[in-house]
């Protein structure tokens, strides 16, 4: 398995436009049956609209790609079946919350979610709400996901100016560090208090990562690669 590549970039150019995905059109009945089976396992799954990427290009400190809208059912089947269309990638933003004493805060996804048990930074597959004037606003997507998952809003942190684009096979995670003026334990306690107030929080637990020894196998490759790079200096 090829290890992830990490590229530091200053700007993103993510255009959103129409595209008829052959995979979704040709395997419609199989996809519908697959999603119905997944919904029986997890009734909370919802077949909303999401955005996937094509034509990823990195040039210097600039990253560009084309995004298109599709059903979550199409995305889930593509993911569960081993990413059969190599011309498409899952591109998303992640907010790497970092405390004042250097710890990163990650969350474990709840049992009712499509990624139950996985531990990573606040993130989500982009959707049409993240489109502004024909462009995918990943910074806005991160703000939305961080608020939904942790209760923190944009006034609670400072975004770094650059992105770390982590290329990991069919996934490209565009990670931005969010610096919080709280020590690690205080940040963790604040997020846990938010989760305790939620009826059905997206996260079942949160963890602090302070060194490479805190990296665990249930973290996706793009997350562990990013953390290893941060702690290697």
What is the secondary structure topology, with strand pairs?
Blueprint: E1 5-9, E2 11-16, H1 22-26, H2 28-41, E3 49-59, E4 62-71, H3 72-80, E5 90-98, E6 104-109, E7 119-120, E8 131-132, E9 135-136, H4 138-150, E10 158-159, E11 163-168, E12 171-179, H5 184-197, E13 203-209, H6 221-232
Parallel strand pairs: 2-4, 5-12
Antiparallel strand pairs: 1-11, 3-4, 5-6, 6-7, 6-13, 8-9, 10-12, 11-12
Helix pairs in contact: 2-3
Helix share bin? 25-40%
What structural class should be given to the helix and strand makeup? alpha+beta
Q: What general form does the structure show?
A: globular
Low-confidence stretches: none
* Percent in strands: 25-35%
User: What's the CATH class label?
Assistant: Alpha Beta
Q: Could you give the count of β-strands?
A: 13
Q: What is the CATH fold-level name?
A: Nucleoside Triphosphate Pyrophosphohydrolase
Order of helices and strands: EEHHEEHEEEEEHEEEHEH
What separation lies between the terminal Cα atoms? Answer: 24 Å
CATH architectural label: Alpha-Beta Complex
Number of helices: 6
Number of domains: 1
What integer value in Å does the Rg equal?
A: 17 Å
Please summarize the sheet with the most strands.
8 strands, mixed
CATH superfamily: Nucleoside Triphosphate Pyrophosphohydrolase
Mean pLDDT: 95
What does this structure look like?
- The protein has six helices and 13 strands.
- The strands form three sheets. Strands 1, 5, 6, 7, 10, 11, 12 and 13 form an eight-stranded mixed sheet that branches.
- A hairpin with a 5-residue loop joins strand 5 (90-98) and strand 6 (104-109).
- With 233 residues, the chain is an alpha+beta fold.
- The protein starts with a strand and ends with a helix.
- The protein has a single domain (5-232), classed as Nucleoside Triphosphate Pyrophosphohydrolase.
- Helix 2 crosses helix 3.
- It is 29% helix and 33% strand.
- The longest helix is centred in the first third of the chain and has 14 residues, at 28-41.
């Amino acid at each position: 398995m090829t290890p992830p590549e990490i590229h530091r970039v200053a700007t993103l150019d993510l255009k959103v436009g129409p595209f008829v995905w052959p995979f979704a059109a040709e395997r419609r009945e199989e996809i519908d049956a697959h999603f119905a089976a997944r919904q029986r396992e997890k009734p909370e799954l919802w077949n909303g609209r999401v955005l996937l990427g094509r034509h990823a290009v990195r040039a210097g400190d600039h990253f560009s790609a084309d995004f298109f809208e599709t059903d979550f059912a199409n995305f889930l089947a593509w993911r569960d079946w081993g990413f059969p269309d190599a011309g498409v990638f899952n591109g998303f933003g992640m907010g790497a919350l970092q405390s004042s004493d250097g710890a990163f805060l990650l969350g474990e996804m709840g049992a009712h979610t499509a990624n139950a048990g996985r531990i990573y930074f606040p993130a989500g597959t982009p959707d049409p709400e993240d489109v502004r004037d024909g462009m995918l606003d990943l910074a806005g997507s991160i703000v939305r996901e961080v608020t939904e998952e942790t209760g923190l809003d944009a006034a609670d942190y400072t975004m770094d100016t650059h992105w770390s684009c982590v290329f990991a096979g069919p996934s490209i995670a565009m990670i931005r560090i969010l610096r919080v003026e709280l020590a690690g334990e205080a940040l963790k306690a604040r997020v846990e208090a938010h989760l305790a107030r939620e009826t059905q929080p997206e996260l079942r637990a949160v963890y602090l990562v302070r060194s490479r020894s805190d990296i665990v196998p249930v973290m996706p490759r793009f997350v562990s690669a990013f953390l290893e790079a941060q702690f290697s200096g």
